[in-house]
Amino acid sequence: MSQGNPEAPLLLYVGRVGSEKKLKRLRYVLDKNPECRLAIVGKGPAEAELREYFKDYPVFFAGQMTGILDIRVDFVGLFT
Predict the structure, then answer these.
(1) Is residue 2 scored above 70 in pLDDT?
(2) N or C: which end of the chain has fewer CB within 10 A?
C-alpha cells in the first residue's frame, strides 16, 4: 500500500465504492497535495471506473476487508 513511499501522507476512504459517493472528487485533493497517496477500502459498482480514473495517481484499491479489528485507544491520553 505504501507504493514505495511509506513516509508520504496517506488518505483513506473506507466504504462502498459507488458513484453516489463522489470519490472522483478526491483526484482534486491529490492534485493539490501531490505528496499524498490514497487507499480505497471497499467494493462496489464503480470500482472498475475509478481504477481507470485514478490509473496515473498513487491510489491503492484494497477491496473489501472483513473481520474484527481490535483497536484500543487511550481516549483520555488523547486530550491531556
Answers:
(1) no
(2) C
